[in-house]
Design brief:
The chain is an alpha+beta fold and 348 residues long. The protein contains 8 helices and 15 strands. The strands form 3 sheets. A 7-stranded antiparallel β-sheet has the order 9-10-12-13-11-15-14, covered by helices on one side. A 5-stranded antiparallel β-sheet has the order 6-5-4-8-7, with no helix packed on it. It is globular and about 65 Å long. The two termini are 26 Å apart.
Length: 348
């Protein structure tokens, strides 16, 4: 690799975005002026106009625009036909295709037992739920407050954040030997009818192979104009077992896949790509958009204007944050493992 060589997707964003002032930038020549936008706090007050607040606001909007306009934009209009399926019918078909039975979810905490019943009160992210005792597995066998536990969940969430249908595999990570806790992502540029077939194939075949997974597809058939319409989440420990199955599923799904893949991911085939999870609570696309947006803003502040110099700064940013600048789908630490596994695939 030549010194300071960036992946073409990073370079594409560098070329597309120009920070023009502390309140304006352009993406592909279209101006964005933030000078008249006021950000309100939860209590209704307008955010104070300090330099720090202005910088954070600017970088947050720039990150979002890079994500929406560049990362997930499916520009292949010839393969962008939207199938208009009734929303309720579409969700019903997705649910029908899912052959899962539910699984056990971690990161729950016991609050206590409900009086006069067998129900256990559990909490996650400060939200309390009342569940039957047989649907709770305590870490130490007790139901004492603050005890970590597993909770039985269903096979699906039909409207996750109002945008996605989420399917859960039957196997939980406690059943997996040598579970690595390093999430990976496979992206599928599906059509709506392809999403139904995808859910059927994924849940049948990965559950049959006792692979721990979860997956989501867009819940609205009118939203299938983005290359990350379907996302499969697997722990790194599951890749060797799962890849032959995914190869077979890809072959069956190929007629239902459009061509584009999300920026910064590793393309594996038509409409099919891979990325390592950033492990920072963000989505993969948002994390990369934030890194790039922040660097572009910082370059403006340092009076760096030439695209060549900005590319050099971008290379340095990625490398310092442990992300390979020429393989932005992966951390530097994990790259060799992923390249060895994924380059052996035959997805013609």
């Amino acid at each position: 690799m030549r010194p300071h060589t960036l992946h073409k997707d990073i370079q594409k964003v560098v070329n597309a975005v120009d920070v023009l002032s502390e309140t304006t930038y352009s993406i592909n020549g279209i101006l964005r002026d933030l000078s008249n936008i006021k950000l309100k706090l939860d209590n209704g007050d307008v955010l104070s106009n300090t330099a720090s607040n202005k910088a954070s606001f600017f970088k947050n909007i720039l990150k979002t625009d890079i994500y929406n306009q560049l990362y997930k934009a499916d520009v292949d209009q010839n393969n962008n036909v939207i199938e208009d399926l009734n929303h309720t019918t579409f969700l019903s078909e997705l649910s029908k295709a899912n052959n899962g039975t539910g699984t056990w979810e971690d990161k729950w905490v016991i609050v206590g037992k409900e009086q006069n019943t067998d129900n256990i009160i559990v909490s996650k992210q400060d939200i309390k739920f009342w569940v039957a005792a047989h649907e709770v597995i305590s870490s130490n066998g007790s139901y004492l407050p603050n005890t970590p536990c597993l909770v039985k969940i269903g096979k699906e969430v039909k409207n996750l954040n109002t945008s996605f249908y989420m399917a859960f595999g039957n196997i939980n990570k406690e059943q997996i030997e040598n579970f690595e806790n390093q999430l990976t992502r496979f992206y599928w540029n599906l059509t709506p009818k392809g999403a139904i077939r995808y859910i059927k194939l994924i849940t049948h075949q990965l559950n049959a192979a006792s692979i721990c997974f979860r997956t989501k597809v867009l819940s609205n058939s009118q939203s299938y104009d983005r290359p990350d319409a379907g996302v499969l989440y697997l722990d790194k420990s599951q890749l060797t077992a799962a890849l032959p199955i995914l190869t077979e599923i890809y072959t069956q799904l190929k007629p239902f896949l459009k061509y584009k893949t999300p920026l910064f991911t590793k393309p594996l085939g038509k409409g099919f790509s891979f990325a390592e999870d950033p492990q920072n609570g963000m989505s993969f696309g948002i994390s990369r958009a934030e890194m790039i947006g922040n660097t572009l803003y910082n370059c403006y502040q340092m009076d760096i204007r030439s695209k060549k110099e900005i590319a050099h700064e971008m290379y340095t940013t990625f490398y310092e944050q442990g992300i390979h600048p020429f393989h932005p789908y992966s951390s530097i630490v994990g790259l060799n493992d992923y390249e060895q596994l994924l380059n052996a695939l035959n997805l013609n």
